[in-house]
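Both lines are retained for reference:
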Amino acid sequence: MNHARIAAEALRFRLGTFASGTADQGNGATPHDSGFDATEAGEILAACGDPGVDSALRLLGETWQAAGLPVSTMDRPWSAGDAARLRTVGGVRLLDTLDELVTGVSRCRLPR
């Protein structure tokens, strides 16, 4: 299981819950060339060792399993059905967990 890809898919999903103008387009960049790269962000999150990020990834995995989704598909693009099941099972706690990943990118990003 690739934690960087799981984190990237989670970020894409979370960004997709915002207004369509900020949703990830599946290629790692958001519209209007914002410069956000979900793949790079996922790699940052997987490598940083931040306790909040690690906890969020664990909670995401628990929610995924509670939704009855195959663990082997967690690091692949999430279907609309996957997203609906996650939201049903995870509710607000799921969004809080995903928000922890979003804020974790800022905490973990190495200065250039």
Residues 21-25, 27-33 have pLDDT under 50 and may be disordered. The radius of gyration is 13 Å. The CA atoms of residues 3 and 101 lie 12 Å apart.
